[in-house]
UniProtKB/TrEMBL annotation:
GO terms for cellular component: Golgi apparatus; membrane; vesicle. InterPro entries: Glyco_trans_6, Nucleotide-diphossugar_trans. Keywords: Glycosyltransferase, Manganese, Membrane, Metal-binding, Transferase, Transmembrane, Transmembrane helix. Belongs to the glycosyltransferase 6 family. The chain crosses the membrane at residues 21-37. This is Globoside alpha-1,3-N-acetylgalactosaminyltransferase 1. SUPFAM superfamilies: Nucleotide-diphospho-sugar transferases. It is a single-pass type II membrane protein. One of its GO terms (molecular function) is hexosyltransferase activity. Its cofactor is Mn(2+). It comes from the Eukaryota. It is found in: Membrane.
Length: 352
């Protein structure tokens, strides 16, 4: 309605008054403003997607997970812009990855830190991992805890599953825990883990596995997409903005925002990451600096410089939130994140 008269005006086929020209310009400006507002409301994704996906679907990631399960599986992004697999558990690609490992004998470590009040999540975490973490494969659980007796009696384990308890000093307060965890992980991997397993994954203890997590997750360096920031514009990512911090990220940097709830890979690669992040944290502490996202900020800084070779979808780190992305299957749920949003009575009912 606006563009047609304007096109005729530009072609010289119609004459208008100055007042009419001003009106047309005003209407055109309002149209542009509306389109920009609509784009912002729909949260159009601005970080890289496979070109084939953009061309074929013509849709943003947040809109992809709509329709039947079959339609979802056909339209999900399966690869990052740098060629790493973007893993959805029920995709054909994941089935192929599982087939590749079906005839291999792989030992994998699952490492978690259970200190202070987080210790009460440990038994539920281990029980759910027994059911769903790399079923049918050899797994060694490494539990770093300040209360080793909390595992008496020990959780029953199936064939090919082992438990190692690593005593650590008490770390009061979430901030102390978050700031010191990378150093503890690096030390554990260096001292024992790397001698016993090929792959190691680090998970928060306040998570519960609720669906199979198979060998599709194995890779050299594996990171997991944050469920509340998946498919959101890059400017919404809570990267560290303080230039003096070693976790600082420039405005034009970054592909995705990764959660610190689950990451892993080959022992050598995970050790290198944990060691690098712990050193950056220590150097910032010496300068009196603390990144806004604590260890997660340094994790994201590292993964910008050293992109992961395998990226797990939000299926592998999810919690009930109005901001969380829709996913075909919820495989790992963060009980801690969900508990934070509950009323006291609900928290008690959920054993938070």
């Amino acid at each position: 309605m606006v563009l047609f008269p304007l096109c005729k005006l530009l072609s010289g086929s119609v004459r208008v008054t100055k007042k009419q020209l001003v009106l047309y310009c005003l209407l055109l400006s309002l149209l542009v403003y509306f389109l920009r507002w609509r784009r912002a409301v729909l949260k159009v994704d601005t970080h890289p997607l496979p070109l084939s996906l953009e061309a074929e679907s013509g849709s943003v990631v947040r809109d992809i997970v709509v329709g039947s399960v079959e339609e979802q599986q056909q339209r999900l992004p399966l690869e990052t812009s740098w060629g790493a697999p973007l893993v959805w558990g029920d995709s054909d690609g994941s089935a192929s990855r599982r087939a590749e490992f079906a005839h291999r004998s792989v030992r994998t470590g699952l490492l978690t830190l259970a200190v202070g009040p987080y210790g009460h999540f440990l038994r539920r975490f281990l029980s759910s991992a027994e059911l769903y973490f790399l079923p049918g494969n050899t797994v060694v659980y490494y539990v770093l805890t300040d209360s080793p007796r909390a595992l008496d009696p020990p959780t029953p384990l199936g064939p090919g599953r082992e438990l190692r308890v690593v005593p650590v000093a008490e770390m009061p307060g979430w901030e102390h825990l978050a700031q010191g965890r990378m150093a503890l992980l690096a030390a554990a991997i260096k001292d024992s883990v790397r001698h016993e397993v090929e792959y190691v994954f680090c998970m928060d203890v306040d998570q519960e596995l609720v669906a199979p997590v198979g060998t599709e997750i194995l890779g050299e360096l594996v990171a997991t997409l944050h469920p509340e920031l998946y498919a959101m514009p890059r400017h919404t990512f809570p990267y560290e903005h303080e230039p003096a911090s070693l976790a600082h990220v420039e405005e034009d940097e970054g592909d995705y925002y990764y959660t610190s709830e689950l990451y892993g890979g080959l022992c050598a690669d995970v050790y290198a990451m944990a060691q690098a992040c712990s050193q950056l944290i220590l150097q910032d502490q010496e300068k009196g600096l603390r990144a806004r996202g604590l260890e997660e900020s340094y994790l994201n800084r590292y993964l910008i410089n050293r992109r992961p070779t395998c990226v797990l979808s939000p299926e592998y780190s999810w919690w009930d939130s109005a901001l969380a992305a829709d996913v075909p299957t919820r495989r790992v749920v963060s009980l801690g994140r969900q508990c934070d949003t509950l009323e006291p009575q609900k928290r008690q009912e959920q054993d938070c």
